[in-house]
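Predict both folds.
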Amino acid sequence: MGVRTGRLLLGLGVGHTSWRVTTRSRFQFPGPTGASVSGTTEDEVTATLFQIGPTAIVDVWRSSDARTRANIAAGLSIGRVSLINRDEFPEFPTGDIMSDEGKATGTLLGFHLAFGGDYFLHRHFALGAEAGYQGSAARNIEENEQPLPDQVTVAANGTYVALRVTVVF
């Protein structure tokens, strides 16, 4: 959502990302009675990110009929990151499956810078695309609502491509 004035668009962006990595392992070892004990364990890491922040898009070129535009976009964001790590392991020598779970949360700071363009199919509707560079850093991470003894920061950055739809009221 945003507002356009001349060549400048100011908006508020919302982002949500979730990912999960699951690893299954098989085990087999001799049990207390000499019989073989076997089974499967599963380890899982889940991360959820939510962020919100302002974005500015500036038109750097317009066609003579103003239907086609090239622009530069930039934005900052703040949000929350949540990590859950669940591990399963066999109890030796019975083979019973035990589990352990840890939760961590932190503040998420992000930015993006991109080059893109829009084509207005109608004065109230445009399709566009952008490609750029983005980064995020999670800070002040706490595990199970307790501050960690060491300062922990997790960061990621990379390039992206996005499709845009603009509706003008």
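Second protein follows, with its predicted structure tokens after the sequence.
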Amino acid sequence: MNDKRRRPQRLFTGTHGTSNILRQAQSLRERQSAWNAMLDLEVQDHTWLVGWSTGALEVLCQSSVWHTWLRRHEKKILKRWNTQFPDTPAHSIQASVKPWIAQLPAAASPPSKMKLRGTLHNGPQRLREAGEQMTPPIAAAVRRLADTLEQLQAEAVTRVSAKEKGAAPSE
């Protein structure tokens, strides 16, 4: 039987001690900045170096888009890594995807009690009112959305009106 209670207890040695973990964390922090320097600007905020061992770089990606980007640029990144860290050469990148939701600042998040429900004809107006409470870039996007919704509703009304009158669809 493989009963854990009957196995001898292992004592933590220097290889598992706090000082070793701290050293590894400091090394990872230093190499994270070097990792970012190897990447293009748009990728730096979406990938993190998690570790390196046995010739492989372990990387965490925000989404499959960045995972694909790493695959496309793997040779270039490995060449830069091996040039900068010849003592720990790497031959491959092992990337995994871990999606997360970025936290927006409190001022940018919409009020929690905002309700956009109502009749269809009030939708664009309610969107515009809600946009006034948001930051300028988001408010501009909400205004564009309201304009688009208004335009789509007008087209839908025109189509329904034409069908009621027995007109043929125009195309």
